[in-house]
Amino acid sequence: MPFDLSDFRLFLAVAEAGSITHGATEAGLSLPAASERLREMETSAGVKLLDRGRRGVTLTEAGEALLHHARLILSQVARMRGEIGQFAKAVRGTVRLLANTAAMAEFLPARLAPWLVAYPQADIVIKERQSADIARSIALGFAEIGVLSDLVETTGLTLRPFVTDRLVMVAPRDHALAARRHVRLADLGGQPYIGLTEGALQDHLDAQAARVGLRITPRIRVRGFDDICRLASAGVGVGIVPETAARRCRRAMQISVKSLSEDWAVRRLSLCSRSDTELTPLAQNLLEHLEGEREGQAFPRNQHKR
User: Fold this and answer.
1) Which of 55, 62, 90, 259 could tie 121 with a disulfide, CB 3.0–4.6 Å?
2) Could you state a single Gene Ontology molecular function term (predicted)?
3) Alpha helices in 170-294 (DSSP H)
């Protein structure tokens, strides 16, 4: 079976996405090229690796076995490169990091900056995902480090405390909801709403609204938390943002900030990595840096394994 590393990366991407189309995009291939390569892999192996259906693909028993070995091989290759890179004049390499919306926008930029300055030859590939997708992707070996909510299933992962992320409602100061001590998501029904254009947080909010039978149709969608606060200050409507963003914006804008009373609105974010695989030296270094830069009051300083 003459599989190469590109074959393994493609197969992992398809397995994660459950779709050849999305897997091909992740691997940087066109759909025809990815489909042909997967067919060649099956021909070479002499066994079917994927069951193709109208809603995507699932792994056969042979595909599950290949996924396991592909993940191990790619992890070992990454570790080999990291160890060899230590003998170079400068530390070189790339760390793959997955994070939810709040972590990407509010917590990671300031924490990643000093590490990137200290290691000018190192790169970070960071992608936004929902917490459940992050846990699955880390478990499958698609990235070395994740930042996710501890509300999702994390069996097989090592968790390290990072920050506490609280979601709040922002509204004009004279808004009817501004008189309340706190609000629930259902209270936003029928209110002019300002949403995000896309991303893991908006998907999370849409899912929570669906759970209580609420359909929120934004008047406008914007790209960032500051934009939501700015529009709320101008009287456009209400929105939901991380508390850190609301506090920052409240210093310069006329907004009311109210906590959301639902349990899901308070999320403890953790750094995660696979429990059964050693990280590359570069990834381990970054993980330790992020743990050292975490929010001090969020958790006691220890490790949690689930």
Assistant:
1) 90
2) DNA binding
3) 200-211, 225-233, 243-250, 281-292
